[in-house]
Amino acid sequence: MALWRLYYHLIWATKERQPLIQLELEAPLYNYIIGKADAKSCIVHAIGGIEDHVHLVVSIPPHISIADFVKNLKGSSSHYFNTTFFAPKSHKFAWQEGYGVFSLGSKQLEQAVIYVQNQKTHHSQKTAIAYLEQVAHEDDPPKYWHQT
């Protein structure tokens, strides 16, 4: 078994930043994401967000690429939600293309976890960290967002 300590702060948004993550869907969505990450031997340190985006602090084993991990989570969670919570031909749950990823050191992990766990407070009090909350436009994404 390899020894690894890799920490990432991931952020991705709903399609067109629509407020699709309603309060009653938040727990099932977060539990689904945690379950999928767990199945891939990833460690979720924190998950949080608001109606139009999700933050995830996670440790991903080195044999899994970050891009593959995010692609799998976004694709499977939108499929799960569309087949479980949304009626056919109704409004569909979808994620926007791309995501933000920031690597963390072990000394930054606790601060990142606290930030993610307090997303609703940060957004309501306007104390969110601007560069973590950028709106990525498909035609002009910030250079630190990766397209998937």
UniProtKB/TrEMBL annotation:
Transposase IS200-like domain location, by residue?
3-119
Give GO BP annotations, semicolon-separated.
DNA transposition
Which GO MF terms are attached to this record? DNA binding; transposase activity
* A Pfam entry, by short name: Y1_Tnp
Kindly indicate where the leader peptide sits in this chain.
none
Q: Which superkingdom is the protein from?
A: Bacteria
NCBIfam families, per the entry: transpos_IS200
What name does UniProt use for this protein?
IS200/IS605 family transposase
Q: Which SMART domains match?
A: Y1_Tnp
